[in-house]
Hints:
Layout: E1 3-6, H1 17-24, E2 28-31, H2 40-46, E3 51-56, H3 63-68, E4 74-77, H4 87-92, E5 96-98, H5 105-121, H6 123-131, E6 147-151, H7 155-166, E7 170-174, E8 185-187, H8 190-196, E9 199-202, H9 216-221, E10 226-230, H10 239-247, E11 251-256, E12 274-276, H11 285-305
Parallel strand pairs: 1-2, 1-3, 3-4, 4-5, 6-7, 6-9, 7-8, 9-10, 10-11, 11-12
Helix pairs in contact: 1-11, 5-7
Amino acid sequence: MHKFVISTSSFDTANNAAIQRxxxxxxxPVTNPYGRRLTEDEAExxxxxxxxxxxxxxxxxxxxxIQSAKHLKVIxxxxxxxxxxxxxxxxxQGIIVLNTPEAPAQAVAELTLGxxxxxxxxxxxxxxxxxxxxxxxxxxxxxxxxxxxxIGLGHIGKRVAKLCRAFEANVIAYDPFIKQAPEDxxxxxxxxxxxxxxxxxxxxxxxxxLHHLIDQQAIERMKPGALxxxxxxxxxxxxxxxxxxxxxxxxxxxxxxAFEQEPYQGPLLECNNLILxxxxxxxxxxxxxxxxxxxxxxxxxxxxxxxxxxxxx
Length: 313
């Protein structure tokens, strides 16, 4: 019997019409037995036997994993980023790779706005101090008075721009793939953005070319007291350089929802001017439901396109 893997740590199969249709077509579902992100070895083991399709999370689908999955025909990412999938290896194996770029965009954009506001008004720090007996009278900043610099102006970046403009912030952006920016957003070179923005927010996929895009040199170009937000991918930010900048006051603060190693247990935990979030950008109930539905539909349609199942099944 053909199988399909759902590798995300949670997935509502019972209320997903496309998943039920795959089961009715004779495919056996295999779910993640660990309740967390799979390692490379675990992903490889799960894709053995007669697995022909996969609803993927963010586990490393490396060339080794893909080449060992002899029967795999379709990878359907439940999310936007494709950096966890070796696309060249998949292409060489004739594997269709799909994603759900629109589904999580609003959720990530809203979390980004929340992180910006929390950073400007130091909400987590104030909460912590009150719980420890203090009554701080912390003076924060207005989003309306800031210039927000967006690195990446895709599905998520455009939504963040719209939300920030609703707060009357000035919005600038860098995206080498965008020729025409939305109304009231100014495109500019990356170094100029670093030098101009009060808040720098990351909204670009990860690739080896973008490894540590925010490094010591980039931080040195930023305004003193600037706020850095990363709700995109770990690896875009040099975490050691960030710790130095937060410790010496070069940056006024930062908020991270993504880390190079997750779960994160590194030295940034020592920084009181840093907001930490556990890679939950897309985990809004409504967005998650849409992601799961779209990912399952993509898997179903991909398997039909690959000729593995009949479109009337």
